[in-house]
Each structure stands twice: as structure tokens, then as C-alpha cells.
Amino acid sequence: MSDKPIIFSGIQPTGCSTLGNYLGALKNWVDLQNDYNCIFSVVDLHSITVRQDATALRKRCMDFLTQYLACGIDGEENIVFFQSHVSAHAELSWILNCFAYMGELNRMTQFKDKSAKHADNINAGLYTYPVLMAADILLYQTDLVPVGIDQKQHLELCRDIAIRFNGIYGDVFKIPEGYIPKEAARIMSLQDPTSKMSKSDPNVNGFISILDDPDTIKRKFKRAVTDSEGEIAFRDGKDGINNLLNIYSAVTGQSVEQSVNEFAGLGYGVLKERVAEAVIEELRPMQERYADLTKNKDYINKIYTEGAKRAGYMAAKTLRKVHRKLGYVDR
Predict the structure, then answer these.
(1) Could you state, in order of their start, the residue ranges of all structural domains in the chain?
(2) Could you read off the pLDDT of 179-212 as tens digits, one per residue?
(3) Helix/strand/coil for 232
(4) What is the β-pairing status of strands 144-146 and 177-179?
(5) DSSP assignment of 28-58, as one string?
(6) In this structure, are residues 133 and 93 in contact, taking their beta carbons and an 8 Å threshold?
(7) What are the residue numbers of the active site?
(8) pTM
(9) Do 105 and 322 meet the contact criterion of CB atoms below 8 Å apart?
(10) Which CATH architecture has domain 6-180+297-326?
(11) CB contact at 8 A, 151 and 113
(12) Per-residue confidence at 151, pLDDT binned at 50, 70, 90?
């Protein structure tokens, strides 16, 4: 890799990639690859904190990685791989578990939220999930981690663990910084615009999958929750309209103010229709590339196989350093 700063990011292969994932993460990843050494992973180890059907998970993993490439990520210039193909992630996670404190993990709000949603399966993996995330990042001496508001707490824990380890053993891990893109769009549910658009939403009308066909996209936007005021404006209390304007602005590249002016005096039906049309056109090239890539399985296999080799080489260097500091016998 070149001397450019290293970025690591990954998405769990649960549910389906949504418009929120695309505008908030994938589209930004495409822009980042020109200025950084990028490592993008399908973080499949994380996904089994919730029970998965093996056949469905395997297919989703392939779908997600193919979508990375279809969105414009260069799988040859960057490292693109499946997390489970580099065993160092699990190994370093165990080591870092011994440097993470129970009090820190007890404060993780995502554990509390997910425990409430999966009360019948509150497993140890769900509890130590942030430590695996720390291992993902620290293995690659990562400089920057694209992170949303919901993951900032996990990144802070990662930094705390790295600083603690370095304080005991010397300069082992690079302390990563969060990278929050200036224009990152926070896309909310179409059915509950006070909540983030989620790929695990049981209500399929709440999210747009990046592989939804045009008719489905139009139908979902047509059903989007708005309000009874009838005025297209961006302000507190108009969550549904604010969300539609944010989506339109993110897709068209114009400011929210410009979008408000464009729709001045028009009705909600027109707004929904135009947002749907803009999203369809934004996703069309990616969907066409995705369709082509799914026919070229040898190329996909080459990308993730070579990606795992390159990731494994980098991860092994860090792990050897960790082993040496801990006093393990050389292999």
C-alpha cells in the first residue's frame, strides 16, 4: 500500500443494503478511495450475534460484497474481503477482551438496545461486539474510521483499549480517529421518520433497498409518512418532509434550501413523486453494474480471495507484534 492514510470500514450482512447505507456510507466510500488506502470488509463475524440461516447468510454476504463493487469501489486498488476469511480478527478480539473493562462494556447503549430487541438471545458475543469492532480497526493500524453517530461510542472504546494497551506495552497500535464526512446524509425511515432507516426494519415500507425496482421505490415513497400541514418546508416537527427533502438533496447534490425553493407551492404528492424519480435515477447505474457483476462470479471470487490475502498479511504483522509484547512463544 502507498503512504496514504488508512481507512477501515465495514457493514454487517444483515437485512439488505438500504438507501441510507448507500448515501451515508457506500457513496462516501467511493469518494474516499481516491485519497486514502481503503480496507472495506463485509463484517460477517458480527452478524451471528443474532441467529442466522446459513444459506441466507452466505447469499447475503456475496450480495453485499458485490454491491460494494457495484457502487463504484475498486476491488483491485482497495482491499475488499470477508471478515471471517482473516482469522486474526477473532484472535485479536480475544486478546483485547482481556484489556476491556466490564464497566466500559456495560455502558454501551447498542448492547442495551439490541438486548431489548432480542431478549431470548442475549449472548456474550452481543456483549463483546464492540471489542471485535476494535480488533477490526486496530489490526490494520487504521488512521481513520468513517463512523455514524450510533457508532461513535464504540470507536471511543476502541481508542481507550488501544491507549491502555500501548500504555502497558509501548507503541503497538495506532490510535484511530473518527471520520465524519461533511455531507453525510442521515436518512430516516419512511414510515417512522424519527428513527434511522434500518436494513433490519420489519416494515419493508420503511426502507428503500438499493436493489428495489422502480415500481417498488415509487410505491414506498408514495406511502411515506408526512404530516397534515400541506406545506413543503424544512423545520422542527416536520420529520417526514424533512426526511424527503434530505433524501432529495443528497441524491441531487443541491442544498436543502434549494430543494425547498424548488418545491415551493407544490403538494406532498409531487414531492414524493420527484424524490422517487431522483432515487431511481441515482440507483440505476449501480443496479446495472450489480446485474453484470452477478454474472461474473470468477471475478468476484478473485476480488475477495486476493483481498483476504492482502488483509491477512497486514493483520499478521500487527498480531505478531502483539504476541511478542504479550510474551507468546514465536511460531
Answers:
(1) 6-180+297-326, 204-291
(2) 876 655 689 999 999 998 987 788 999 999 999 9
(3) coil
(4) parallel
(5) HHHHHTTTSEEEEEE-HHHHTTS---HHHHH
(6) no
(7) 114, 196, 199
(8) 0.88
(9) no
(10) 3-Layer(aba) Sandwich (3.40)
(11) no
(12) confident
